[in-house]
Amino acid sequence: MEHNWKGIKKALSSTCQEVLGRMKHHRKEWISIKTPDKIQERKNKKTAIDNSRTRAEKVKAQAEYIEANKRVKRSIRANKQKHVEETATTAHKAGREENIKQLYDKTKKLTGKYGLIAVAGNEDVNGALIWRCSDGTQMQVLQPPETTADNPILDVCPIFFSSTQSHYLTLLTDRMLHFYMWRTQNSY
Fold it and tell me: Which top-rank group of organisms is this from (predicted)?
């Protein structure tokens, strides 16, 4: 039986490898099409450093590699920033259209591994909202000023996001904040 299984396994794996090929690494969705070419160019510069024979060749290859590395990092940083801004704009648009599911999905995508902090809102003696977060901190939410058609006021709730991403997420609307308040008060 064991010999039979080895033959079947070998036939299956060889057929799959011929038909499908080796597993390819997929690029992240926010990386542009030109960036993998720059990464490959950087790898080629790195092999040029390893293959250089004289000290002068090595110094020259290292200078080229440093420049290629800077280009790759700059490109990736720009791609990531563009993606985050587009996602935040989409979240803002979903908030204005009261599409809570899409807004929740986009904010969850932007928060990444940090996730949303569980909060509970209560009112103090004066009627102001006070948030008690799961990490032990407290935050007072001020009442938003009146909004007009030509000057919409957007509330910011930084407790939902990491500090590095909070400046992109100033697009959350007052409705989303109240949705989270309602959700957290009704979940306990």
Answer: Eukaryota
Q: How far apart are CA 143 and CA 175, in angstroms?
A: 13
* 41 shares its domain with 90: yes
Tally the domains of the chain. Answer: 2
Per residue in 148-172, is it b (16+ CB within 10 Å) or e — as a string? eeeeeeebebebbbeeebeebbebb
Tokens of 74: 């700059």
pLDDT, tens digit, for every residue of 104-156?
888 778 777 665 554 555 666 666 656 555 555 555 554 444 555 554 444 44
- Which residues in 40-63 are b (16+ Cβ under 10 Å) and which e? eebeebbebbeeeeeeeeeeebee
Which residues are CB-contacts of 118 (< 8 A; sequence separation ≥ 6)?
133, 134, 184
